[in-house]
Amino acid sequence: MATNTGTYTGETGVVKFSGDTSAVTVVASVRGFEISQTADAVESTVMGTTGRTYVAGKTSYTGSMDLYFRDNDENGQTALFSAIGNDPTAIELYPSGETTGIKLSGNVIITDHTITANFDGIVEATVSFTGSGALTRADL
What we know:
mainly beta, elongated, single chain, seven-stranded antiparallel beta sheet, 51% strand
């Protein structure tokens, strides 16, 4: 297990997505991604107490990725575009590559796919997703 003991860069990061197939495949031309995991705080205060109390509730996660748009990436970017509003499907995120650091994985629903074109730049895409079920972290 080659766990990072310090900081590292995201230049070798990888995103994999399963689309409508069972195998996850690399998404081409990823510029960056973010993922945010949250937990509900459920109030458990009872009458007669002066301070509010809480218990941990359900967890959830959302994320997005920025891409240079590619129309020839059938199993990656095209699959992301086609998956909007479909059933949850597998995603794997490797912040520092597939051999160092961690792997985050789970099932997601693609909630947004935006393509941006400017006269003086590369065509880009942004894909947003919401997790369904637990987000799993594994050390590499």
